[in-house]
Amino acid sequence: RTHLFPSSPPAADCTLGARPWEAQRQGGQQTRHLPPQPHQPLWGVRGRQSRERAADGRGAGELPHARRAVCVVATMNSNSDVIPLEPGWEKMREGIDKFTHIVEGNFQESFPLAMHSELYTTCYAMCTQKAPHNWADELYKRYGTMYEQQLEQTVLPSIKAKHGTEMLREFAKRWYNHKLLVRQMWKLFVYLDRFYIKRISALPLKAVGVQKFEQVVFNQVKEEVRGGVLQLIEKEREGDMVDRDLLKSVVDVFVEIGDWRPLFPTRVGEEIGDIGQARLNTYVKELETQLLADTSAFYARESSSWIGTDSCPEYMKKAENRLLQEVALVAAYLHSSTEEKLLKEVETQLLANHQSALLDKEETGCRALLREEKQDDLKRMYKLFQRLPNSNTCGLQPISQIVREHIVDVGMSHVRKEEAEKDHSMYAQQLIDLHDQYHAMVQGPFGSNTLFQKVLKEAFEVFVNKDIGQSSTAELLSTFCDNIMKTGGDKIEGEIDTMLDKIVMLFSYLSDKDMFAEFYRKQLAKRLLLNRSASDDDERSLITKLKYRCGAQFTSKLEGMLTDMNVSKDSQNNFATWMRTSEVNLGMECSVTVLTTGFWPTYKVDEVALPAELLRCVDTFTRYYESRTSHRKLKWIHTLGTCVLTGRFDAKPIELVISTYQACILMLFNQQEEYTTADIATATKLPMDALMKYMQTLALSKYQILTKSPKCKEMTDNDMFTFNRKFTDRQRKIKMSLLVTKVSQDEKLSTKQTVDEDRKHAVEASIVRVMKARKTMAHQQLVMEVSQQLMKLFRPDPKVIKNRIESLISREYLERDKDNQGVYKYLA
């Protein structure tokens, strides 16, 4: 054992845990117990000693006798107890050289435990001596100088002696060894770190070791190292195999060198900012910046070669693969913070810079993919360009505009094709099928993105509101609903509820929703009154869906109609009970439906002369109703009434289901065999034009109940009609054609007139609501706000709004401002 001073006696055992440097007087000599060894060397002796302590049963501060650590104890004269600087440092230098030799020899031997304890004790003693012999400051300076010498003499020459991949491997190895050296030196000089450095706020020992490596080695070779790293990355991008582990270890040097910077900046003007980000200052400045520039240049060259030769789908597949490769590259050996920046450069060069050219490729661009319904390619396009920020020329917005134009083109082609057809009954179904097609596209390839949902709505609003011939889409959609909701109408495959959802979706694109509501109300009335509705549940389901879409006010009349039908059923049962109680016998079955005037459409009332049998039914029900209610007046409407007559033909009796007006005509032939057209008109009091239509259904249709003379299609006042006793049919009950079930041209005109009149009232009500809230308002602002309020039901014409304002002024609801004629005031 080598002692600090030759005059000292042999070493003695000491128990760990004693107070350091505790002086005691023993026989004129001073004994100094050296401090305990709190930190064990790098190679794990501490763990072994801990297990031995536990096995021996001794306390945590006591070693077993067989393995007891030997401490250096020096017995000195009182005048010679100071460790001089140079001898002390020489001793420390021996240990440093020893560990450096071990590292250079690839750890073929281990660092002696006794030397570790001795060096730690020496450092402790040199740092705790009283001034002027306290060498802490000098030790701290020589600690840094020691690194500089070792790096300049050994590490830097070994790195510079090699080139290319071997240089990178040597660089990574030297950094790894340097980290081990710094760790071991810190354990020897730990007293400096715990007390001296904290007192003077100096750079920690580990930070000094990293700083010296950066100053002496890193700054000298960083350009060559960076060039080697970037060269290997480019080789990998070109398809060559590279050593990813080597790249990872080299890149980690750039990251780890910045670990100590956030808390201990050393450069003047260096802004630390966020500590986590400041750790990467060296990595970003020395490697990442150039990496991003090289990446941008690489993909600029590659994309320029692709765009001229590849189709749009091929280009997108290559771009997708490149993006996946870059993600894998970052995960393999770059810092995770680089991924977002790196992908942004790739996206800019591969996607953003060539988006217009890519989408507009004539045979393989976005329009071609839409025409050919290439779902996978459209999905890939969406996922790629979703990465880019949205603008008029970048990201998803240009794609959405192409999708919008495509849908409008397809829709307008359907409109033009339908205008050439005579039968428009399937037009609504075609629109539903078209919407299903593109709605599936929006939900599938385009991921239900709100931007594409918006363009789908905008595109359908363009052509759905185009008139087909003399019919509006609102009317055709209402007629389509009528066909699937009535008995004997068009049957649909699948769930009726799903079809109703699709109808309501198409309805939401209509600008004239009030027009649809009026047509639907009239057709619903016919289904209910003629008992043609296939399902009350389906009727209520559709009304509920419309209510959810447009509000309770929109469907209040429709709901009232269904309520009236339910109330009428109860009323009919009560009427039957009343007749039995009153012993009234009508000689036939009589069913009356009582309707609320405000809910149902307005029908034209013809002054028809009812037969005595029917007149008796009317009078009887009137007496019953007046006995049950007061202050209510019944107004009989026979337009939608039905009768079941039994015709006694020669072959067999046949029941005929006909309208009330047709029944009035046929029952005349109970009185005499033949009538002229003029005689029938006089007897029934029906208008001649209406009578002509009814006579055609009875004499010139499929079922010729009457015989016309002369036999021609033209009708005159002198035509003679007789009862056709020879008529027969396979069925015993015939439902004859009822003209009222069809929407006539006159009814279309009356419906539009009704809607126009209702719109005037709606506009006026909206104007009053707005003005009542605002009191004073300019003309343009008033028009805009009223239009906004009414947009849910219809698109008001500014001219109509202006006319209604003038009407309200004339009726003294509003007045013009005396100083400004363009401003209106509300009159309470």
Mean pLDDT: 82
Counting helices, strands and paired strands, the structural category is: mainly alpha
Low-confidence stretches: 1-80, 263-274
Give a count of the beta strands, DSSP E runs of length 2 or more: 12
Number of H- or I-type helical stretches: 30
What is the C-alpha radius of gyration, as a whole number of Å?
A: 50 Å
Fraction of residues in helix:
55-70%
Shape: elongated
Strand portion: 5-15%
Distance between the termini: 113 Å
* Order of the strands making up the biggest sheet: 1-2-3
The major pleated sheet works out as: 3 strands, antiparallel
Oligomer: single chain
Describe this structure in words.
- The chain has 828 residues and is mainly alpha-helical.
- The chain has 30 helices and twelve strands.
- The strands form four sheets. A three-stranded antiparallel beta sheet has the order 1-2-3, with no helix packed on it.
- Helix 2 (85-104) packs antiparallel against helix 3, helix 7 (205-237) packs parallel to helix 10 and helix 21 packs parallel to helix 23.
- The longest helix has 33 residues, at 205-237.
- It is elongated and about 150 Å long.
- The N and C termini lie far apart (113 Å).
- 26% of the residues are buried.
